Amino acid sequence: VLTLANNERIPLTSSMRLLFEISHLKHATPATVSRAGILHINPQELSWNLYVTSWIDRRERQTERAHLTILFDKYVPRCIEKMRSSFKTIIPITENSMVQTLCSLLDCLLTPENIPADAPREIYEMYFVFACVWAFGGATFQDQ
């Protein structure tokens, strides 16, 4: 049985599982903590590079993987540093979230219809820069 803050009780079957992703345990009761498995992952230990490596490895074309590796190394560290030093976001967004957004945008843009198999790196770079602008700048204040 899951009891909510308003004392509403939700019955759970033995096959049901719940996963809560939270940033802190400030409002968790001792009963909740004792009944739940808690996994703490320090965000500083999870580098955006791990996600990117996994994402690039799933791309089908070898030439595309090579182009994307170069582009991620060229642009992402500078974008992250510029976001840290010069820009404020409307809502807090982690570096990993911005990079995941970049990869999702690239998934939509780098299709066989948009990128022929023999496309030069400049074509990839055009789409990459477009996706970077939205992934990193999408949550910044309008006057930035």
From TrEMBL:
Matching InterPro entries: DHC (IPR026983), Dynein_AAA5_ext (IPR041466), P-loop_NTPase (IPR027417)
Domain Dynein heavy chain AAA 5 extension: 70-140
Gene3D superfamilies associated with the record: 1.10.472.130, P-loop containing nucleotide triphosphate hydrolases
Pfam families the record matches: Dynein_AAA_lid
UniProt superkingdom: Eukaryota
UniProt name for this protein: Dynein heavy chain AAA 5 extension domain-containing protein
